[in-house]
Amino acid sequence: MNKIWAIARKELAAYFQSPVAYILLIVTVSVFNIFFYVIIDNNQEATLRDVFKVMEFLFVFIVPLLTMKTFAEEKAAGTMEFLMTTPIRNSAIVLGKYLGSIIFFTLIILLTSIYYVIVEFFAAPDRAATLTGYLGIWLEGAMFIAIGLFISSLTRSQIVAAICSYIILFLLYFSLNFIQYTQGAAEAIVRYAATLSHAENFAVGLLTTADLAYYLSTILFCLVLTRISIENRLWR
Q1: Ramachandran region of residue 125, left (φ > 0), alpha (ψ -120 to 50) or beta?
Q2: What single-letter DSSP state applies at residue 112?
């Protein structure tokens, strides 16, 4: 566990050693603040449901920027082989890098918690729906990061990693738009794969086993694939 945490701290430090992290934080929170004001002003409702929808959409763009360098940068700099020949299990390397990215992402989420405080101060929101909404956004971001981590492990180019991550996340986000062209089992698969199908339940206060299984199983699957990817590279 100490080795995982050490890698996570190294990954987190790498974020803040670059001005990109600060720019990303400032821009992201600023955009969220603008949408929060506009949505609350237009809806006149004590709910963050529509805010969560905006956050979910914007994370499709933001997360690939967080994950594109995790492994790709190591490969491009030639430090990947050194890292993998240290007395650290490959699983610890993957989990450490994943944990570092998750911590940075969680920081972004925490900076938006002021929205709940504001709504709670001026009205009486549905607390359960707000908490599950935040949980859903966090789980979806964690899943996006796991996908981005896997893509980054396949290439040494950060640009390629970002573009491929964008393609996959866009397909997951907009897959419900293609449901009209499917039927039967294919329709059920597309509906289950769509992130909107699951995030919407969290946003309205529904916490189901199927939704939790969707996020957690995808995260685990992508982390396993990431480990296999870096192990295959080592043997080559």
Answers
A1: beta
A2: T
**pTM summary value:** 0.90
CA dist., res. 154 & res. 158, Å (int): 10
The tokens for 104 are: 């940075």
Q: Where are the domains of the chain?
A: 2-235
Side chain identity, residue 205: G
Asked if residues 215 and 193 have their Cβ atoms less than 8 Å apart, the reply is no
Distance CA 126, CA 45 (A): 11
Residue 235 predicted with pLDDT over 50: no
Q: 222: closest CA among 113, 122, 148, 117?
A: 148
Query: Please, which residues have CB within 8 angstroms of residue 23's CB and are 6 or more apart in sequence?
Result: none
Burial 208-234 (b: 16+ CB within 10 A, else e): eeebeebbeebbeebbebbbebbeebe
Mean pLDDT of 150-156: 90
Six-digit token string for 141: 């971001």
Cα separation, 63 vs 41, whole angstroms: 28
Q: How far apart, in Å, are the Cα atoms of 107 and each of 48, 100, 190?
A: 19, 11, 31
Q: How far apart are CA 226 and CA 43, in angstroms?
A: 42
What's the pLDDT at 203?
81
48 to 14, 55, 139, 200: CA distances (angstroms): 32, 10, 17, 12
Q: What angle do CA 215, 24, 169 make, to 5 degrees?
A: 35
How far apart CA 226 and CA 203 sit, in angstroms, is 30
Query: How far apart are the C-alpha atoms of 195 and 222, rounded to whole Å?
Result: 16
